[in-house]
């Protein structure tokens, strides 16, 4: 997909048109992960990307709709089923020709807070691995993969991406929405892999709606990420599996163990969910593994440490969380609390035996990480306009680690990653553009007020989610300007 551009057929005010791109740039800098090894840069358009398999999109004939099958299960009934043979929990695509109509099975029981998750194991991928595991409303068409039509979402085995379609105008020219990678990268699946999909429900507080609000995905039990469900989605979403690869066969587990993946999902929002500690306690009570990992190798304690959610970190440690688990980049919970400048959580981890000598793949201890971060951070930034309130907190974290690190005189400063010429030029251009905008704003008090509003907008959760949502949409900037023009 294309990157966001500022082209627009409408005519918003010139100040707004120039300001929102700057806000998006500022958002990318301010909110993107800043720990070692985590890149903030988008690859240039010319960079190679994995190709997604093209799937035929056909329309089911009236005759084929008469071939519906039924199979009873202890968990419910595959009440809607076409071009698929079901034997117990095993479902097989019945078409033998390439390019035949999609086959779909759908359970007659929606996911609920009592069973919010299910898994599908690929027994045979078929010729092209065209298998989609998803959720849809009870009227969903049985000739489309989940995620290809309204009120549906799906995780597809062949390209390892998710598809979601709340409203028709979000569909691409192919007649279905474009694939979106999970956590920044696709996770394709093959024979023996287990694909999982679950829901987060609005079931807490004094007036819960009970409706699903997020859908999350897993591969072989590893949490891959989640997406928010817009209000257009139906309140009841049913397990739905699609096929259009001859020879494809899957085994469906409608009672898959979910507390651990539910805990890992909740961990992604420890800093924003007011019920996070209750959700954590409930998941642990149901048997969740407190050391469960996501696709990045991070545990709930990693996330609690990054967010500075000290009460949750304390609960996890009390229940057996290992503070020395290292993620895919070698980061521990102590690295996370240091890198995200969380002195209270850093102190808690040290008191609970976290090892300050463990090193990342770039050879940094937690002390090195906070020293390097503090060393490149000025007390004020943006030409003295913004005071960095984290600076004294960085000093506090550094002093805590100085007291427990074996050799404080050692200071590891990793070499910066090598960038391509295109990446260097993109960074230089973006930096120069930001400087130009700042200089112009300094000359105009009214624009300075707009900047203050823009800084507040960058903190808006809805704005952050929309930036991510429209990141690959060629009309993304136009949509952002239209949706947020009244807030700036």
Automatic annotation (TrEMBL):
One of its GO terms (molecular function) is ubiquitin-protein transferase activity. Transmembrane segments: none annotated. Keywords: ANK repeat, Repeat. InterPro entries: Ankyrin_rpt (IPR002110), Ankyrin_rpt-contain_sf (IPR036770), B30.2/SPRY (IPR001870), B30.2/SPRY_sf (IPR043136), ConA-like_dom_sf (IPR013320), SPRY_dom (IPR003877). GO terms for biological process: protein K6-linked ubiquitination. The keyword Repeat applies. Residues 51-259 form the B30.2/SPRY domain. Pfam families: Ank_2, SPRY. ANK repeats lie at residues 296-328, 329-361. PANTHER family: ANKYRIN REPEAT DOMAIN-CONTAINING PROTEIN 39-RELATED, BRCA1-ASSOCIATED RING DOMAIN PROTEIN 1. This is B30.2/SPRY domain-containing protein. It comes from Guillardia theta.
